[in-house]
Write the structure tokens for this entry.
Amino acid sequence: MGRLFDFMLPDNKSPLTADSTDGLFHFINEVSLIFLVGITIALIYFAIKYKRKSEDDKTPVITHNNTLEITWSVIPLLIVMVVFGWGYSGWLNLKAVPNDAYEIQATGYKWNWNFNYENGAQTLNELHVPKGRPIKVVMQSRDVLHSFFIPDYRVKHDVVPGRYTYVWFQAEETGESVIFCTEYCGTSHSDMLAKVIVHEPNEFEQWLELNGGGIQGTPVEQGEQLVSLQGCQTCHSIDGSPKIGPTFKGIWEREQQLTDGSTVVVDENYIRESILYPGNKVVAGYQNVMSPYEGRLSDDEITNIIEYLKTIN
Ligand SMILES: [Cu+2]
């Protein structure tokens, strides 16, 4: 159903969450347009009708007009009450997650989105969901304020350190939609993009099955998967190209200059410390923007990452 202001909105791909927002959006725009046209016409009409016609044309003294004043107070009041009621019921709907919703955990951190599924599957910056089923995304932040926004579904919520928040939606068609971070969170905030990938339900089950095993392989292979799942490559390249952090290429046994003027030779303990407490030793020429991984990675995982880093030459 085409409406006048449709061009201002992206496609609605989750009617259960988007319809109320869209309806209200159109209502406000259409009512505003009606008033704009009405007021403009009245303005022009009065300007012509009451134009000063002769030297002794005089404005009559009008103190007030009850009918007119009540009308222009009551009509806007009614409209505002409609807008409030509509907005409030839409908000309640966004807060009331259907009971059979499928739950996915999301973690936002500088500058990635990490998703965890019930069977241990993990993805970085890709949210896989089945179509035609309500999805609840439970979100947390590892560092600063972020905000999770999927325009196609009209859902947006702040992601706050130390607190869980959630959104829900139900995608009705397969395909992809963009996820934005809409809370300024540092240098690469504008690159903090992810996408929702909507599958047919049976394809989603297959996908889940295939990825459910978690991280497997030799220590080096596991380290490689961890580095890619944890989003280390947002800030560290593996081919020597410059990024926000030092490249991993040739990192092993490299001599590193620190901001305090001292030098270190990169070994196991230095890498371990750099991952757990990045602020302790900051590499010269870089800023201390890496979030501490203390409590996020186990000792075994760190060992595997170290084994992998040794191989990047
Ligand atoms: Cu962010």
User: Anything to note?
Assistant: The chain has three domains: 6-46+65-95, 102-211, 219-310.
